[in-house]
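Appendix B, example 12.
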Amino acid sequence: MKNFPFHLISILLLTFVSCINSQKSSDNNQPPKPSFSGNFLTMKINGKEWSADHGIFGAFHPKGYDKVIIIAGYSGKKDKTEKTFNINIYQTDGPGLFSFAQGNKALSVAQMGNWSEQDYLCGSMMGFDMKVHVTKATNSEVEATFSGTLTCPSGPTLVITDGKFYYHE
């Protein structure tokens, strides 16, 4: 019984030190992790929400492609009606603000495939004008926001707003 207060004090002291150490190891000036847990590609197209529901992919300088950031995703059934969206930013060293249109020197491109039966390819050689802010680009993670326009073969323009992309392996 005489040793009880000493043991109690020792246990409390060890618990206190342990709590301080665990707090220090989690607070080592690292930026906070994103609050979301999965990959996503979302945007508004002519004011309506659109989201990729599969095939979301991002890459930074992938093997075989020097100096490129790839943003891609698919929506719908995996058949001829599957909508495919991608942005390829060429001749880039990393994150930054990119503004490019059809005919740009780096050959960067934005396009939506299979928007409709009539508009099988919007953007690309039909015409596009994009602003992309890549905030993170590493071997395993790509994060960006974007907006712009994609011209379709039958004449209409897809107005892209509130574009958000996140991919990690």
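Residues 3-36 have pLDDT under 50 and may be disordered. The chain is about 15% helix and 45% strand.
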